């Protein structure tokens, strides 16, 4: 059983499309700010998406900017569903699409060598890894190993920071005003401080209740990364706080 993907996830994502509109719009906004896109209409090179699932939360219009898109997911339903959701749009833009059922994270060094110039998108997967390991230490270790392995590469990640119960029901597609594009923190200490401020801000905004789950992604972004904070009403009274950033060390 896949704890972060599989048929249950696909059904849930399909059903929640309208409740997640604002979250997907926030993600689209962040994706659109990828610092290496030269021009709105100019196709950039190759994109690898790790933890792509069916690309429920990624707009086809953004994928069309690339000459080639290669996706990886351990879930066997992900590849056919990704093709189904985005295939036609990518054929229309002349973007080559290849979808693989593969543990891309275990095989990251080989994957990076095989695609030396590709931009890598970790698509809501790092924060899920604690559910794929028996211990928190093993999950944290793998997250650290992955981010180290990406050194020198152009990459981005959207992932869970925290998740938990909320007092209020999420109001459909209403946007929770997020902290868009704050200035990058200059060092680790400033980054930790920013995260604490964001946590207080979000707890208040979202009406956080009880103890929230830490998804172990605190150390993912190096200092200097501009981090976007995005609310994701996963269920009516259970919200994920996502963080998203682009990195080139
Ligand atoms: C929350 S879902 C991602 C959602 C997706 N980005 C979307 O827009 O629909 C997390 C995904 O990560 C996948 N995953 C978990 N571990 C993985 C690994 N080692 N390699 C590739 N995919 C993995 C899961 O199967 C799951 O589909």
Can you give keywords for this protein?
binds S-adenosylmethionine, 8-stranded mixed β-sheet, 249 residues, Rossmann fold, alpha/beta, 32% helix, single chain, 8 strands
Number of helical elements: 7
| Distinct small molecules bound, one entry per kind | S-adenosylmethionine
User: What would the CATH topology be?
Assistant: Rossmann fold
Which word captures the global form?
globular
List how many beta strands DSSP finds: 8
Domain module count: 1
SSE order in H/E notation?
A: HHEHEHEHEHEHEEE
User: What profile does the largest beta sheet have?
Assistant: 8 strands, mixed
**C-alpha end-to-end distance:** 36 Å
* Poorly predicted parts: none
Beta-strand share of residues? 25-35%
CATH level-4 homologous superfamily: Vaccinia Virus protein VP39
Share of residues in helices: 25-40%
Question: How much is the average pLDDT?
Answer: 89
Write the CATH architecture name: 3-Layer(aba) Sandwich
Give the radius of gyration: 17 Å
CATH class: Alpha Beta
Overall SS class: alpha/beta
Describe this structure in words.
This protein has 249 residues and is of the alpha/beta class. It has a single domain, classed as Rossmann fold (3-Layer(aba) Sandwich). It has seven helices and eight strands. The longest helix is centred in the last third of the chain and has 19 residues, at 188-206. Residues 2, 4-5, 13, 50-58, 72-75, 78, 103-105, 123-125, 128, 132 line the site of S-adenosylmethionine (SAM).
């Amino acid at each position: 059983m896949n704890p972060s993907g599989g048929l249950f996830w696909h059904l849930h994502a399909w059903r929640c499309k309208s409740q997640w509109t604002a979250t997907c719009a926030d993600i689209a906004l962040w994706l659109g700010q990828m610092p290496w896109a030269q021009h709105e209409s100019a196709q950039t090179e190759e994109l690898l998406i790790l933890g792509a699932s069916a690309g429920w939360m990624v707009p086809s219009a953004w994928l069309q900017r690339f000459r080639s898109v290669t996706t990886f997911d351990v879930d066997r339903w992900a590849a056919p569903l990704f093709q189904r959701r985005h295939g036609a749009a990518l054929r229309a833009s002349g973007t080559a699409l290849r979808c693989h059922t593969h543990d891309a994270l275990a095989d990251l060094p080989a994957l990076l060598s095989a695609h030396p110039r590709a931009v890598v998108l970790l698509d809501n997967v790092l924060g899920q890894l604690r559910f794929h390991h028996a211990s928190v230490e093993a999950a944290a270790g793998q997250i650290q190993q992955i981010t180290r392995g990406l050194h020198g590469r152009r990459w981005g990640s959207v992932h869970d920071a925290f998740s938990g119960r909320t007092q209020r029901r999420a109001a459909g597609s209403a946007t929770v005003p997020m902290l868009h594009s704050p200035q990058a923190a200059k060092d680790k200490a400033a980054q930790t401080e920013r995260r604490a401020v964001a946590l207080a801000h979000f707890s208040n905004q979202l009406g956080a209740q009880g103890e929230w789950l830490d998804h172990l992604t605190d150390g993912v972004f190096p200092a200097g990364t501009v981090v976007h904070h995005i609310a994701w009403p996963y269920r009516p009274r259970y919200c994920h706080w996502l963080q998203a950033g682009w990195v080139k060390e």
